[in-house]
Amino acid sequence: MTSHILAKDLTVEFPIFENSHRSLKKKVLNLSTGGTIGNDAGNHPVVCALDGLNFDLHDGERVGLVGHNGSGKTTLLRVLSGIYAPTRGAIDIRGKTASLLDVATGVDPDATGFENIYLRGIMNGFKPKAIKSKVEEIAEFTELGEYLNLPVRTYSSGMMLRLSFAISTSIDADILIMDEWLSVGDADFQEKAAARLKALVDRASILVIASHSPDLIANVCTRKIQLEHGKIVADEPIVKPEEPAAAPGSFPIPSAEPANE
Fold it and tell me: Across residues 113-133, what is the average pLDDT?
């Protein structure tokens, strides 16, 4: 099946609800002006995170999302991952999708490392048989050894990130959704992580990644979509330089943390 993402007038709005009973300012104003205290008429204000987006992504495309903090990049990634539904418009996604938005999401601190491999696998839609076939490979990649038999709450933050990264990147998908590039562990482990990410990206038909790193976008992506205040202000191909910006087979790994948008 050919992978495909089509957005038509994609809009996502978040309502802002007031609690009039807790608004001392509103009560004082109403009393001082002779008004009555009551509920609003229902016309609540909203924040428009994505405003009428239209785009079409095809097999082989590596799309970089750029824009300032709050431009809508992360919201769009969450729509593509199925976390948010459009308020208006439509999004049509053809192909199995995997997301690397927050690799630590869904980890149970009281469960062991091995148990968390199964829990995360089930959350990602795998059947127990499929998860079992990946356990040995995931365990070896983490280099955590006997710690995998201990509760995750006993792990250091670096150990937990290794485990989460290994689980999240063990899946194969037609469409890969990422928020920034991941920096994991010490220098040696980062080299392993970069190779694993490259293999994952190479296997995907479509990549969509949000990043603040111009070098990452230039080296990895074939197309750039720029967002400002929830709107697409630029959508253009990336022209590769005659000389590669990075050595063949290598990926830059920025240390920037994903921004909430």
Answer: 85
Cα 231 from Cα 72, distance rounded (Å): 8
- Asked if 100 contacts 196 with a C-beta cutoff of 8 angstroms, the reply is no
- For residue 253, CA distances in Å to 171, 182, 191, 235 come to 20, 6, 9, 24
Tell me how many degrees the CA angle 87-72-250 measures, rounded to the nearest 5. 130
- Residue 33's pLDDT band, with cuts at 50, 70 and 90, is very low
Written as six digits, the tokens of 236 are: 């253009």
Map out the domains of the chain with their CATH numbers: 4-13+45-96+173-237 (3.40.50.300)
Percentage of the chain surpassing pLDDT 70? 79
- Answer whether 9's CB lies under 8 Å from 86's CB: no
Q: What is the pLDDT of residues 213-241, one digit of tens each?
A: 898 899 889 999 999 999 999 999 998 76
Is residue 166 within 8 Å of residue 148, measured between CB atoms? no
pLDDT tens digits along 178-219: 988 766 667 778 888 888 888 888 999 999 999 998 988 998
